[in-house]
Amino acid sequence: MSAAKSAKPTAPDLREQAVDTLFRLLESHDFKDISLPDVAREAGMRLSELRSAVGSKLEILQAFAARIDGKVLDDLDEDMSDQPARDRLFDVLMSWLDMLSPYRKALKNLKNSMRRDPALALALNRIALRSHGWMLSAAGIEVPGIKGAILLQGLAISFARVVDVFLDEEDPGLPRTMAALDRELDRGEGWMQRLDGVERMAKPFVDGLCRLAEKRARRRAKRQEEADGEPDPDAAQPVTPLT
User: Fold this and answer.
1) 30's torsion region: left (phi>0), alpha (psi -120 to 50) or beta?
2) Average pLDDT of the residues of the chain
């Protein structure tokens, strides 16, 4: 027997096999009704082999999201690089939906399972946030700090509404889905503009609080130094204003 025929599947190969198997089972079962032994049995692998590849059903979902993200990132349209950020994001997100098309039936069942299971909904939100971070990067959009976190969560919520339309649309051209995505991006732009306004209004107040905190830290350090005769290295750390 050749080495190629006798070689055992590697962990990444087994992980991809687990993803395919779970999503095949999801076409006819609720997520909660699928066990890891079910996945192993359906995939034709030992449970120990599945354990070497993944740690849980949620990890299989994470691997699925990473697979879709990778396909989208490999399929980026370089001709979009000189287009406005909104158009680039629209193109990236539509590409993401295209990559999800073969799994539509399974995703419908997963969505229904999520609506009955708050813990699953929270876990899927964490997975979605990671994916949307990559999609924003793919579109050349970088927003740091708290504003970036708000943008990311807002995009995840908005895109979930678009996915609801996508999963029920039968027209292969996806006109309803594209219209929904267009509306959600418009809404997101409006929220970001309002957030910019709030940030500008709040900046003097936040900067003042930071200066006050710095003064208090210096006074505390001075009192500590007078009491101990030695400076407290942790008492007077500078406070960096939010940007």
Assistant:
1) beta
2) 83
Q: Cα(151)–Cα(162) distance, rounded to whole angstroms?
A: 16
CB 151 within 8 A of CB 89: no
**What type of residue sits at position 2?**
S
Q: Which pTM value belongs to this model? A: 0.74
Q: Per residue in 125-161, is it b (16+ CB within 10 Å) or e — as a string?
A: eebbeebbbbbbebbebeeeeebeeebbebbbebbbe
Q: What is the CA radius of gyration of the chain?
A: 24
Res 68 pLDDT > 80? yes
Q: CB of 233 within 8 A of CB of 217? A: no
pLDDT, tens digit, for every residue of 28-50? Answer: 999 999 999 999 999 999 999 99
- Residue whose tokens read 């999801």: 26
Band the pLDDT of 7: cuts 50, 70, 90.
low
| pLDDT value for 4 | 47
Work out the burial of residue 20: count CB atoms within 10 Å of its CB; fewer than 13 is exposed, 13-18 middle, 19 or more buried: middle
Could you count the other beta carbons within 10 Å of the beta carbon of residue 21?
Answer: 21
User: Three-state SS for 163?
Assistant: helix
Q: CB under 8 Å to 55, separation ≥6 — which residues?
A: none
Q: Hunting for tokens 């890891």 — which residue is that?
A: 36
Longest alpha-carbon distance in the chain = 81
Return the pLDDT at 51: 94
